UniProtKB/TrEMBL annotation:
PANTHER family: RAB9 EFFECTOR PROTEIN WITH KELCH MOTIFS
Organism name: Gigaspora rosea
Residue ranges occupied by any Attractin/MKLN-like beta-propeller domain in the UniProt entry: 25-217
Protein name in UniProt: Attractin/MKLN-like beta-propeller domain-containing protein
Domain of life: Eukaryota
Length: 231
């Protein structure tokens, strides 16, 4: 009788644990204009505009080290322990640093209530799960958003064009190069086309290919055949 009671108690305990885990499983809200970075087997997602219509400070990841159910993926939320320092959307991000385990997020504001005139660099150390706002040097770009960032094997992050959201409300063709090892900025050559909201792809040859996006023309969509190569 005692053994039966213990067995039933164990079954009830396991059921409670299963139900609690199922109820409290983290599921991110719907969003767009979020950033995504892969480090090792984890895809990190940064910010994005949710159903409130505003940017968020969310940070969570999906571990793809083993097969998972795409209809019900297992998310891990880091927002409670490592929220992004500002509500983020439209911001370029990239992995870099000496250990290639640091996320670099380039924002157009320092705080949620203060737009900046220059790009603000935030870093997230994925090993310690901590954010920082390091001091950068060199030709720090004016604030922009809706850009894409790619990084080469030497830790240099390349960012092109983008849209200025506060003063000019225009897109640009500038090229910015950020050294994620020395935390310094330099200017690259201007692109032939003004654009934002494009795709940027780094090829194994080291060539960066820019395709699509928008500009300030009356018909802003850029022809997909207008492919720009940068090396």
């Amino acid at each position: 009788m005692v053994d039966l009671f213990r067995f039933l108690w164990l079954v009830i305990l396991l059921l409670n644990l299963f139900i609690t885990k199922s109820v409290t499983a983290f599921v991110p809200t719907s969003r767009y204009y979020q950033g995504s970075i892969i480090i090792g087997t984890k895809i990190y997602f940064l910010g994005g505009i949710d159903n409130s219509g505003k940017g968020t400070n969310s940070l969570f990841y999906l571990d793809v080290s083993s097969p998972f159910n795409s209809a019900n993926p297992k998310w891990t939320d880091l927002t409670s322990v490592a929220p992004i320092p500002v509500n983020s959307a439209f911001a370029p991000s990239c992995v870099g640093g000496s250990n290639k385990a640091t996320i670099f997020l380039f924002e157009h504001h320092r705080t949620n209530n203060d737009n900046s005139t220059i790009l603000v660099t935030f870093t997230f150390d994925s090993t310690t799960q901590t954010w920082a706002a390091p001091t950068t040097s060199g030709a720090i770009p004016q604030t922009r958003q809706d850009m894409r960032a790619v990084v080469d094997n030497n830790g240099k992050i390349y960012i092109n064009g983008g849209f200025e959201p506060s003063i000019t409300h225009k897109s640009y063709n500038s090229t910015f190069i950020f050294n994620s090892l020395s935390l310094s900025w330099t200017n690259g050559p201007n692109a032939p086309i003004i654009r934002s909201a494009y795709t940027a792809t780094l090829l194994s040859s080291g060539l960066i290919v820019y395709i699509g996006g928008t500009n300030d023309d009356p018909s802003p969509e850029i022809n997909m055949n207008s492919v720009i190569k940068f090396s």
